[in-house]
Every structure is written in C-alpha cells, then in structure tokens.
C-alpha cells in the first residue's frame, strides 16, 4: 500500500508538473497571471475527446496536432492583448482580471459548443494492460502519460537551457529591460512563451481524461487553482521548480486519497495556503516577492 | 456640504427604490438578490476600490455567514436577527484568522483568498462533518421562514453598507486608504498606519459579507453548500464593482443595476450567453476602461459621488 501510494504519487506528480509548467512559463516571462490556464486544459481535453470519438485518433497523435495549433493560438493571443496591457498602470493585477474574463468567454463558448454534459474517453485508448513497477501494478495509460509528461518536461528544459530562443527567454525572465537593451526582441520571445505555455496546457488537457476523469466545459476553474498551487509550491517564475511542486502535490494527493479520501479535494488549497503564508517565494524560490 | 448632499441623495434614491421596488415589479426574489449583490459589491469596493486588494474568495465570508447564522438558528434556537449578527461576527473572526493573507500582494492575495474560500467550502460540505454542517445536503430553515422580515433586515444592512462606503468616499479615513493603495511607502511616511488600515478594510468587508450571507440564508431558507460558496457570487460582485468603477459610492450601484438587470433579462434563460457577454465585457473594460464607467464622467470634470 505504501509503495503503491508513493509510486502512483510520482506518476501523477509528473503529469501535474506538465499541467502546471505552462502557467509558470507564462508568469515567468510576462509576469502575467493566466487565470484561463485551466480552460486551455479543458480545450485540449475536448480535442482529445472529439478526435477519439469521431476519427478514432490516438491521443498521442492528437497531442502533436494540438501542440502546434495552440502555439499559433497563443502567439496570436499575445499580440492581441499583452502589448496593450503592458502599458497600463498595474499590468499584473489587470492581467489577472483580463484572463479571468477570457476564462469566462472560453467556458461560455465551450458550453454553447459542447453542452453541459460530462464526457469521458474509453481509458483503453492509451493501452489497456497493467504495467508492473517494483512489484506494483499500474494502469498502462498512467505509465504512458507519465512518460510523455517526463519527455515533455525534458524537452522544455532543453528548449530553455540549450536553444538560442530559450536562453533569450530566460534572459527576459531574469531581467526584462536588460534583455531588451541587449538586443533581444522581448515581444517575439514572449509570444513564443505564451504559445508554448498554452500548448503545454492543452497537451496536459489531452491526457486529462485518463488521469483526472470525466471532462466538462467548467472543469477549468479547479484545474487553474491546482496548477497555481503546484507552481507556488515549486516557485513562481522558475519552470523547473514546477517539477518539485508537481511531485509534492502528486504525493500528498495520493496519500490523502489512500488514507483520507473525503478530505482529498482540500489538498491543493491547503498546500497553496500554507506555502503562500510560510514561504511566499516557493520551496525553490530565491528572492522574496514584494509581499 | 454639497458632497454630503450628493452622496445622501444617491443613498436615499437607491434605498427607496429597493423599499418600494416590489410594488413596481412583483418579483420579490429579484429585488432581494439585487440588494445582496449590491451589498457584496460595496464590500468588494471597500477592499478592492480603496486598498487595491482583489479578493476572489470573497464568497467564503458570505458562505461562512450563511452557515453560521443557520447553525445558530437550528442548533441554538436563537432569534434570526441575533443569528445574523452571529453570522457577521463569525465571518469577522474568520477574516481575522485570514488576515495574514494581507501580507501577500496583487495576484498572490487574490489566489490565496480563493484558496481560503475553497478550503472553507470543502470543509463545510465534507460528508465527514455531516453531524455538524449536514455536509453536502445543505441547511433547512423553513421553521424560521419570514420573507417580509428578512427583506426588511436586508434593506437595513444595505443601508449601513452604503452609508459606510459613502463615509469612506468623503472622509479622511477613505482618503488614507486610497493613499495606501497608490503608494504604501509614501502613505506610511505620511503617518498612515498602513497595515492597520488595510486590516480594518478587510474586516469591514468580511463583516458585510457575513451579515449579507446570514440574511440570504434566512430569506432563501433552504440551501446547499454550493449555493452559498458559489464562486459566481464573488465574480458577480467583482464585475459589478469593476464595471461601475471602484472607490466611489455610485460605481457599484450603477454596475449592479445595469449588469444585474441584464442578467435578469437574458441571464436566467440562457446563462452561457450571459457568461459570454460578461467575459467580453471584462476583457473590454480591462483593455479600454480599466477604471470603470465612472472614469468617463470624471474625465469630463464631473465629481462622481
């Protein structure tokens, strides 16, 4: 039981890291709070649902399609709203309200388009077998999703630490004005970050029917707070810290579900609250925020 | 003197409208909820408009007040009015316990308050606490049901709330609060006790939400945890305030009448279209009119109460 709890916590932890990393990337680069994050996850989930039920498309293929679609969408969204927002008096606070409005729009459109019913995908779409890890049996789909999440996180790290655009992205994260004066096109870097951030949320959404359960148009709100809990536990503005946050969240969720199931929905909020009050900069945070 | 006259007439017209409203249009529930949202919007206004702290989890105080008042009525058989005061006091205590949240700023505060409200919700609605709060099965106050009295109490609470906002709009206290919003360091150097002022605004808004929640529970008499901890309650109150413009008495009133009117017109039959209009409105407001409708009049030189 203990081994199973820990291992499933780690598998889910990887998935939750993938779910939250996009939010952290966007916050790190733009200092903007994407309250519609969960709604982009929801859109990814519905993409997987319709691709599977209409064309019997494997979620792994859907993932690739969705990734490129949302990069374009994110870039467009960036140029549509962010430059205007940055000229305002208090961009961080206004971004919170703006993305909240966007979240309402997406939810409303999703209800109009998909209806209010809960949907689910046949969970065998990602493999129906049982995988044994250290003597414990796990659903094959969990292991597939965790592996893909790990791969995605490694690719994001390679992007940030090896590629030229990624290094520029980190430069913008650590000091926006200096990066701009060093000749980095801040808008271009930020548009890519927005695109990649939304695309990562959407591919996490593609897998959500296998990890979180049935999907509906209003599922985004809870997922946004969960993602927030994860990146705040890790540390805001540090995408790699997200992995720590995801793992801690996954482990504590699995622990509660095994031993105190009726209290498990309290976990993300409780963790978020405790971390915010005790160490607002997150477990891996370097500087205090202006709190 | 002119200021007092203007604020007083706004206050009087609004209250009169709610007092005689049911004779104009007989949907009492609509008028009652209008008062609930207006009082909550003014509560948000006191905190967000005057100090810049936007509490997404404001509904937590509303739900706390509703549950506390109901429990005082059903378990301790107190008079509804005493129970409502108790609900307000309970929300005040919860606000005091949560006041460390004010150490956070901007988005962190908003998210933190949301987390706090969800924590209260998941605790109250937990099946494990069914013996105390009746878990997810809600409360039943039918034995105390009295729509006329609860309507009158709500009107009194609304009057007190509007009066408080009017006071803050024109007093030195309100000016000091706004100074802490614009620049906390300069305000502190000018001798304003920044932390104490913020906590005062926070507790005041918590008390209002608690009283309103208790009265709401009494009026509706049967409710579930997801009725009184519905995030949409926070959202409505925030959008009403943003639409009209914070740090004014009239802003949230205009926001409430326009948007709640719109809601009653199309929102009940087709909530998703209403949500869409809401979302578009919020995005447009942030991009083009971040200080609300009232800022248009201020630009023209009118002093909006």
Quickly list its features.
heterodimer; A: 291 residues; mainly alpha; 73% helix; globular; B: mainly alpha; 77% helix; cell membrane (chain B); branched-chain amino acid transmembrane transporter activity (chain B)
Q: Can you put this structure into words, describing what you see?
A:
The complex is a heterodimer of chains A (291) and B (305). Chain A is mainly alpha-helical and 291 residues long. Chain A has one domain: Orthogonal Bundle (ABC transporter involved in vitamin B12 uptake, BtuC). Chain A contains eleven helices and two strands; from the N terminus they run ααααββααααααα. Chain A has helices at residues 2-30, 37-55, 59-86, 91-114, 140-161, 164-174, 176-181, 186-211, 220-234, 241-259, 267-278, and strands at residues 130-133, 136-139. In chain A, strands 1-2 form a two-stranded antiparallel sheet. Chain A starts with a helix and ends in a 13-residue tail after the last helix. Chain B contains 15 helices and two strands. In chain B, helix 3 crosses helix 10 and helix 7 runs antiparallel to helix 10 (194-220). Chain B has one domain. Chain B is globular, with a radius of gyration of 19 Å. The A-B interface holds A 33, 81, 84-85, 88-90, 92-98, 100-109, 111-112, 221, 225, 228-229, 232, 262-263, 265-266, 268-270, 272-273, 276-277, 280, 289-291 and B 52, 54, 100-101, 103-108, 110-112, 114-116, 118-119, 122-123, 126-128, 231, 235, 238, 242, 272-276, 278-283, 285-287, 290.
Q: How is the secondary structure organized here?
A:
The complex is a heterodimer of chains A (291) and B (305).
Chain A: H1 2-30, H2 37-55, H3 59-86, H4 91-114, E1 130-133, E2 136-139, H5 140-161, H6 164-174, H7 176-181, H8 186-211, H9 220-234, H10 241-259, H11 267-278
Antiparallel strand pairs in A: 1-2
Helix pairs in contact in A: 1-5, 1-8, 1-9, 1-10, 2-3, 2-4, 2-8, 2-9, 3-8, 5-6, 5-8, 6-8, 9-10, 9-11
Chain B: H1 2-24, H2 28-51, H3 59-76, H4 80-97, H5 106-124, H6 130-133, E1 139-140, H7 147-170, H8 172-182, H9 184-189, H10 194-220, E2 222-223, H11 225-228, H12 231-244, H13 250-267, H14 271-288, H15 294-299
Antiparallel strand pairs in B: 1-2
């Amino acid at each position: 039981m203990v081994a199973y709890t820990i291992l499933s916590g780690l598998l889910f932890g990887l998935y939750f890291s993938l779910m939250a990393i996009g939010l952290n990337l966007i916050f790190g680069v733009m200092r903007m709070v994407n309250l519609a994050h969960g709604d982009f996850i929801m859109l990814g989930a519905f993409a997987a649902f319709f691709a599977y039920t209409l064309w019997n498309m494997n979620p792994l293929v859907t993932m690739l399609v969705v990734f490129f679609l949302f990069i374009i969408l994110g870039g467009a969204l960036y140029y549509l709203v962010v430059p205007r927002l940055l000229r305002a008096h208090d961009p961080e606070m206004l971004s919170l309200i703006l993305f909240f409005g966007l979240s309402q729009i997406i939810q409303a459109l999703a209800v109009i388009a998909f209806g209010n019913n809960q949907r689910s995908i046949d969970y065998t779409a990602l493999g129906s077998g049982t995988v044994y890890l250290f003597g414990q049996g796990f659903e094959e789909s969990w292991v597939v999703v965790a592996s893909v999440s790990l791969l995605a996180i490694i690719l994001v790290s390679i992007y940030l630490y090896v590629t030229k655009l990624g290094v520029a992205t980190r430069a913008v994260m650590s000091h926006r004005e200096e990066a701009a004066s060093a000749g980095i096109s801040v808008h271009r870097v930020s548009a890519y970050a927005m695109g990649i951030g939304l695309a990562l949320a959407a591919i996490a959404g593609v897998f959500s029917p296998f990890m979180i359960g049935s999907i509906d148009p209003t599922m985004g709100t809870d997922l946004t707070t969960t993602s927030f809990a994860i990146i705040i536990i890790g540390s805001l503005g540090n995408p790699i810290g997200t992995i720590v946050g995801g793992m801690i969240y996954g482990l504590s969720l699995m622990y509660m579900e095994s031993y105190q199931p009726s209290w498990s929905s309290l976990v993300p909020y409780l963790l978020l609250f405790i971390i915010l009050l005790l160490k607002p900069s997150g477990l891996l945070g370097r500087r205090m925020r202006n709190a | 003197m002119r200021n007092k006259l203007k604020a007083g007439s706004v206050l009087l017209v609004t209250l009169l409208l709610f007092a005689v409203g049911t004779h104009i249009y007989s949907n009492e529930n609509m008028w009652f909820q209008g008062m609930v949202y207006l009082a909550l919007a003014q509560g948000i206004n006191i905190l967000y408009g005057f100090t810049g702290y936007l509490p997404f989890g404001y509904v937590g105080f509303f739900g706390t007040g509703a549950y506390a008042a109901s429990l005082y009525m059903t378990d301790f058989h107190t008079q509804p009015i005493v129970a409502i005061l108790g609900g307000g006091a309970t929300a005040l205590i919860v606000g005091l316990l949560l006041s460390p949240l004010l150490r956070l700023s901007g988005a962190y505060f908003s998210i933190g308050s949301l987390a706090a409200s969800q924590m209260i919700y998941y605790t109250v609605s937990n099946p494990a606490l069914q013996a105390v709060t009746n878990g997810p099965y809600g409360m039943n106050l039918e034995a105390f049901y009295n729509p006329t009295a609860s309507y009158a109490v709500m009107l009194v609470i609304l009057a007190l709330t509007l009066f408080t906002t009017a006071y803050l709009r024109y007093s030195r206290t309100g000016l000091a609060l706004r100074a802490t919003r614009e620049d906390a360091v300069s305000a502190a150097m000018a001798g304003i006790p920044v932390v104490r002022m913020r906590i005062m605004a926070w507790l005041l808004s918590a008390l209002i939400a608690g009283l309103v929640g208790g009265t709401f529970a009494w009026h509706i008499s049967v409710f579930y945890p997801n009725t009184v901890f519905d995030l949409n309650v926070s959202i409505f109150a925030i959008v009403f305030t943003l639409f009209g413009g914070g740090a004014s008495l009239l802003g949230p009133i205009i926001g409430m009448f326009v948007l709640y009117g719109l809601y009653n017109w199309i929102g009940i039959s087709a909530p998703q279209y209403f949500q869409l209009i809401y979302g578009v409105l919020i995005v447009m407001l942030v991009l083009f009119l971040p200080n609300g409708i009232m800022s248009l009049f201020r630009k023209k030189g009118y002093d909006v109460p």
